[in-house]
Specification:
Order of helices and strands: HEEHHHEEEEHEEEEHHEHHEEEEEHEEEH
Strand content: 15-25%
Helix content: 25-40%
Oligomer: single chain
Number of helices: 11
Shape: globular
Structural class: alpha+beta
Length: 428
Amino acid sequence: MQHAADLIPHIAAGAVGESSVLTEGPRWEIVVSPGVFRVRTRDYARAERTHERGLERRRKHVDIAATWEGDMPEPLPTRGTITAWTRRSRARLVERLSDLDYTYLYGRFHVCAGCRHEYDEQLDRCPRCHHTGRTTEDRRGRLPAMLTLTYPGDWLTVAPTADAATKHFQALCKRYARTWGEPLRGPWKKEFQRRGAPHFHLSTTPPMGTTLVDDPATGQPIRVDFRRWLSITWADIVGHPDPEQRRRHLLAGTGVDYAQGIKLTDPRRMAMYFAKYGTGGDKEYQHQVPREWLTTVCVCTECGAGYDSDRDECPDCGCPDADVTEEGSVGRFWGYRGLRRELAIRQVTPAVGIAAGRIARRWYRAKGLTKTISVQRVEQTTGRVTYRRSTVRKELFKHGRGFVCVNDGSEFASQLARYLADLATGSS
């Protein structure tokens, strides 16, 4: 991938010229990843000033905390609470999962014997602790699978909040590491069933061997494969107090789908699978947060006090006007474990950046992909507003910047670099 990015006409490090000087204003960059080709602009001077302001705020906060008498108030959260699945979160999921290096999930890599950090096989020692000892982990012979973790029928007893469900998933990851001697790797996503119960999807490569686990019926150690181990362990982590609910959860609380896992052969297919329910249709209900995890609160428009939604007026000032908000958080909808991004960033001249964005826009438009939108129509005589469904072409890189998901980012970048080189030769 790095070699493919080098084929693009870019500003080399240490180059001499007017275009290689870092000045104020945005700089054009082309980013190549395993499943994404991206054209963007970044203002490094502005980013440096933002970083300096953050350091200054941190210094002031430390000075105030050192001289504060009494209990220090909690700082305000920097991020809002997550209460819904948004379009921006869906776009970030597609972009991030396409940037990940899935060698640590499907390939062969080395693990440091000292700090257990993974590093490239071309290095003779660990780049973190400089230890020369290492072990080789080869996942090429494993079958990929899609894991599903669900909750019993009475799910509110064991998962009354989003934090409880998150702790269950984290406990499973810890038990996996202790039992199989390796971290649980792969992207995951949280969804909701029609009854409101959460469930997790995780794409990984399960171990092919067997292990010992206590039999839920007799309490004696038995040797089981991964599918049986996952069922017993997940039911034990959730731990429903009702014996009947726990028995049913043990039988149907997990799923290991190897047929679905084999279909995810490249970063783009992986990202599209996890985001396929976010574009509407009959599966959109899986992103609707259960009402049991959120609390409806009224905020008075006069004094700003919050009170219960059952009241008709503010208890402090008696004002009947209020803004209805929802408190609580559903937590993260998606994430990944044991993987990291792999990016090849090259700074280019504005002419090369604009040309690359124009080529990517034409390439995507040539696919002829369409989408259905709602178009507003106003009757001139009556002023009545109606809406109709219309089919339009999908467009990317409208302003010469953006990203496109591809099956092989290095192949796409090398072909585009060949076209840019021919374009530069013809113009000269």
